[in-house]
TrEMBL record:
PROSITE patterns: HTH_ARSR_2. The lineage of its organism: Bacteria, Pseudomonadati, Bacteroidota, Chitinophagia, Chitinophagales. Pfam families: HTH_20 (PF12840). Gene3D superfamilies: Winged helix-like DNA-binding domain superfamily/Winged helix DNA-binding domain. It comes from Lacibacter sediminis. This is Winged helix-turn-helix transcriptional regulator.
Length: 106
């Protein structure tokens, strides 16, 4: 089943996993220790993140390490950027209106 990357990052546990492995590669056991859930549940989250190419696997001996895939996350950020700019513009306009109202009331 091909999953959508936005569906993958919609889950708070998967976002937390991404944050954890953004700074260092981690094994499923090491990740499971960070959450109040089973290793199997973490493995399921990792499988979804791997299917969406947000994380990469690296076999080292008997351990599998999961790495953050910055290139894929940049694609997500690039998609969101125009919307962020639009929100920033609108919020700045709202700030100006509120400042104007605030100064005219004095």
């Amino acid at each position: 089943m091909r999953r959508d990357v936005f569906q993958a990052i919609a889950d708070p546990t998967r976002r937390a996993i991404i944050v954890l492995i953004a700074t260092q590669a981690m094994t499923p056991n090491a990740l499971a220790e960070q959450f109040d859930t089973s290793r199997q549940a973490i493995s399921k989250h990792l499988r979804i993140l791997t299917e969406c190419q947000l994380v990469k696997q690296e076999q080292t001996g008997r351990e599998i390490y999961y790495h953050f895939n910055a290139k894929k996350m940049k694609e997500v950020a690039d998609f969101i950027e125009p919307f962020r700019q639009m929100w920033d513009t609108r919020l700045n306009q709202l700030d100006k209106v509120l400042s104007t109202i605030k100064t005219t009331k004095k």
